[in-house]
Amino acid sequence: MRKIISLYILIICLCACLQKEAPNEQPNILPQNVLAKVAGYTITQEEFDERAALLDPAFKNYISTPLGKQNFLNYLISERLLQQEALFKNLQEDPEYKKEIENLIKQQEIALKRTKEFLLKKTLMDHIYNEGIIYVSEEEIKAYHKKYPYEIKILQILLNDALEAAQVMNAVKNTKTQNSFKEAVMKFSKDPLVKQNKGALPPFIPGEYLSEIEVPAANSATGQVQGFIQTPLGFHIIMKVGEDRLTYDKAKERIKTILEKQKLDKYLNSLKEKYGVEVKNENK
What we know:
By secondary structure, this protein is α+β, with helices and mostly antiparallel strands. It is built from 11 helices and 5 strands.
């Protein structure tokens, strides 16, 4: 943004300067791809195009005109003159300048490191897929759909403390309607997102949510309250509010994702055994 503002100001100033030519100025003969030379530094057509590509669409349209092109070239010349003067004054040794450059280099090194890590992981994932490690066949999808041809709908209250979860469970265990359970969600639940949706989760096929929740939800009747159930997210109290059958066509992509994740988890577990994993226990 700062560069665009500076460019805009310089273009305005340079427009006025264009009409004034040095009285004794002699035409220079430069190589075909060189637009200008400043203190021995050449500004090429390639550099002009690279810098122009970074501009706002409005400025790109402007510099496509002869006047706009000349003004932008004058801006590049002015920029190079300022850079040359900074070098002449040895400002590359200025502490603040050096500090900013060091910070920039660190940021670029971190960004490059993260990009290399991402691309390496992506390359491995491509290999895993091509080797069939997480490949899911049509037969596997059909077998899973035969076993779980439905999706489950639940409401949940999410709490942080086991004692509080036990007290809330005692208060809501005889709840019979969804509306009354939603009122309990708004009153007791500690998770803002849970409250935002009044306890409702997106309908899930077994395998799409937490297994600790899916099993009791699948085995309970509609309208039944169960809990409290501990998961890595906290302590859950749930009410099953529905169960809908899904056709194979509607379920197959979701089931494929479930099975791929299961195979990837199995692969990751084998890597944990191969390389070892230690996790700090914050509760100790």
